[in-house]
Amino acid sequence: MFKRLFRKKSVDQIIYDSQHGEGSGLAKVLGVRDLVSLGIAAIVGAGIFSTIGLASYEGGPAVSLLFIFTAFACVFTALSYAQFASTVPVSGSAYTYAYVAFGELFAWIIGWALVLEYAVSNTVIAISWSQYFASMLEGFGIHIPAWLSMAPGYALDASQKLAEHGANALTAADKHGLEAYLSAPRIGGVPIIFDLPAGIITVLVTALVYIGIKESQRASAIMVMIKVGIILAVIFGGIFYVKPENWTPFAPNGMHGVMGSVAAVFFAFIGFDSISTTAEECKNPQRDLPKAMIWCLVICTVLYVAITLVLTGMVNYTELNVKDPLAFVFKYVGFDYMAGVISVTSVIAITSALLVYQLAQPRIWMTMSRDGLMSKRFARIHPKYRTPSYATIVTGIVVGVPSLFFKMDFFVDLTSVGTFFAFIMVCAGVLYMDYSGLSEKSKFRVPYVNGKYLVGLGLLGAIVLMWIYGQAILLEWKNLTFMEIIEHKVLIIIFWLTWLGLSIYSFKMNFSLLPVTGILINLYLMTELGASNWIIFIIWLIGGLVIYFLYGYKHSKLNKESIS
């Protein structure tokens, strides 16, 4: 049984199944420009128009450095993705890559984690879209009833806050929530409150994705041109309102404040993963996917760093804890016309991000179904539109229903857990490819830098720096009990042990430095996420393993082939 759990698919077998098996027949219409456009649509979306405000509020102007650091982490991951994409040019993203490198069980775990990543990310985007849409309509004098434009949790929280602390304690957001609670129709005394715009946009985008990849790409390209144009206008227009004194202090809450925004910042960069899910719809995936991934990362990093510096220069970071930071800063400096334009553009920008994520999720399910790990219906291709029809509809339901009823802050941090996990597996997969000789089939390879001594020297250097500059951290550890260390620091321990293990194996096996660096940076960023996110993620994985052993293990194509 152990061998069956880790059985692997060959590259030739995966490519054959994608061309001749169930779920084949997708339209090959995408080139480099199309892929870059889709990547920018995904990366420059809800992050730059909403969560960047919260990140700046928590970390100050220094969050611009966090974008650079996060992009630095993504470079190594993007190179690893690019190598896999040039070797295994099929849909499925990290799921497919894990099937080749680590076997079926790991592939299922990654695929199940990606389901969480895309579903949660899309839910966040849909809720964010609703907030901007309601704000835009207000600018035109159209008011959506509060009980039709928010999750019930916000209204219930506002009602409870009023009862406990009085009206003086209510913020503007609380008052809006209270309005929803008081004005909502009731059934049996229970207020009926839900986020209707979030549900509607999910249905509309799902319908577009269902109709076809080319139609989706054209719509995305138009929206990308509009939003990149407005972002450049914000950067070059906002420069004239920048006050350098707003950049002081640069890191008001220290590294803790900056790193505390990792989830909100990293959420923006998972878009290049979605590009790899369209591999079977590329004209030349082995050439075009690597180029598109690198171009997306470079362009989007420059935009994010520039916009963060402009925002924190125009307005003091303490003012940026708002849902629409780009529009807010121009209202703050009295440029209301620009704020109105940004509100309209934000709706378009966030729609394009939702579109790309809705494209990606069904294609992962389709690939898992093709391998027998999920129902055959998920691999069903529409005869006219040539899209994974059933998987697309299910994706719409999985995203649409939670977006109607759940609060955004429940999802934001959770978006990054599955992403980090998948990124680490992809980087580790490149090490396996080098070891097994699979890299010889790659038309693009991660540049090789021998890490035989460098990984271990890096570990020694980090220990020395910690001893010199990290005495406060070491003192904190000394004051913790054994149980407190297990409860709060276990991920840090895993990080250092992993670095030690990679140092040993790099010395023995001459591991390439760049994938190792990708593993370590992603793992370190994982340690900055909250414990609650990990608990939910572990519960999600346990549920996924139950499904795998009840259905996937038995119906796996590799399992049937081994029996026959």
TrEMBL record:
PANTHER family to which the protein is assigned, alphabetical: CATIONIC AMINO ACID TRANSPORTER 4 (PTHR43243:SF4), INNER MEMBRANE TRANSPORTER YGJI-RELATED (PTHR43243)
Protein localization: Membrane
Keywords: Membrane, Transmembrane, Transmembrane helix, Transport
Protein name, per record: Amino acid permease
Keyword Manganese tagged: no
Record flagged with keyword Transcription: no
InterPro entries recorded: AA/rel_permease1, CAT_C
Transmembrane segments: 35-57, 63-82, 94-115, 192-213, 220-242, 254-272, 292-317, 337-360, 387-405, 411-432, 453-474, 480-502, 509-525, 531-551
UniProt main location, coarse: membrane
Species per Swiss-Prot/TrEMBL record: Sphingobacterium kitahiroshimense
Topology in membrane: Multi-pass membrane protein
Annotated ranges, domain Cationic amino acid transporter C-terminal: 513-556
